[in-house]
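Thread title: Can someone regenerate the structure for this chain?

I was given the following input by a collaborator and told the matching structure tokens would be attached. They weren't. Posting the sequence so someone can regenerate them.
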Amino acid sequence: MVPSLSIDKTHPAPAPASPVQRPPRYHSLDALRGIAALVVVLHHTLLTLPLWSALGMHGVHRSAITLLFAIPPLSLLWAGHEAVAVFFALSGFVLALMFLGPGPPDYLSFAVRRVCRIYIPYIVVMAIAMLLMTVVPHHTPELSEWFNASWNHAVTRPLILDHALMLGQPQYNFVDNPIWSLVHEMRYSLIFPLIMWLVLRLDWRLLAFGSLLVSVAAMGVLRHVSNNWAIDSLQYAFLFVTGATLAKYRIETAAWFSSQPPGVRVAIGITSLVLLGIHSLGFSDRLLVRAFAGVAPQIGALLLLIAVIGSGQVQRLLELKPCLWAGRVSYSLYLSHLVLLLTLVSLLHSFVSIYVILIALPGLALVLAGILNRLVEQPAINLGRLLGNKIAVVHTAH
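Best answer:
Regenerated them for you:
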């Protein structure tokens, strides 16, 4: 996002896209999404236990181990909300690439692809979750406050309507609570062509500063106004806008990063991880500290993307096969892991140690994600591509 002066050939950046080709796919960023999804899984696994729920929900330390895991780098292992910030920045980056090549998609074609990509797997998992919530007994008072906040109400018509329309009303988010982020993802997807219109016309400094102001202002208003869907989504404007802006300036940014001394590159990477790992500051008694804790992960997510696209070594590490596979199934993993957790714990906790269930959960969640990816997610992507191409052909013909 800054002009390039020179390029360090030992850390090559991706080659510029030719005028007749779309920008290259960054497989390393797909893998990063997979790692972020695994962090969310670990986050929810730990929150099942009262010890960690007290820390995650109220900032209360009841053990020396929670004190240790509240400090980077260990805090990164369960930085669930911060991992979602990385998701949002990645979405801004990846979606922008669709508009930066020749023949950017028309709005209807783009929207249909995004709806199929996000909504179809989402609604399938929500239907399964509501069925399980109805038939699986869920009474676990010995587990955490966070865990028992799910599956604690009946399936009702307003609940079904809220999920069917992706309204994201907080009072109905007890079926599969990670879906709150998908609501924002869908909203930003539907207005993303407008974001790209701004990104393609405005200076990156104005975009970064302006979107940061919008996000900070929205966070401030939300402290006094609850349950406002528009303001709730606006707090993530910085992530989507700067993610898209970074995609526009990806070549210049990667070249600038590669040209920096090794110490500077390492410092940027470490800073990004520290900013993503200081979530415990959100419980500070000081307003400014809490405000900083709200903004820090957004800046950290952007710096992390810069470090990844600018470092050939990091890209090669992320492009190892296990990381790439985790990236491929990351959406299915994010959607389904909590449903699996709630089901397994509810059915087995009476005669199987909760620790055995929680230790087994990440592996089982990855297996389930692989199945969902093959049976639901990939067909939904293919359907969106098919419908989008047909719409594009009709649009071109007219």
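The two ends are 38 Å apart (CA to CA).
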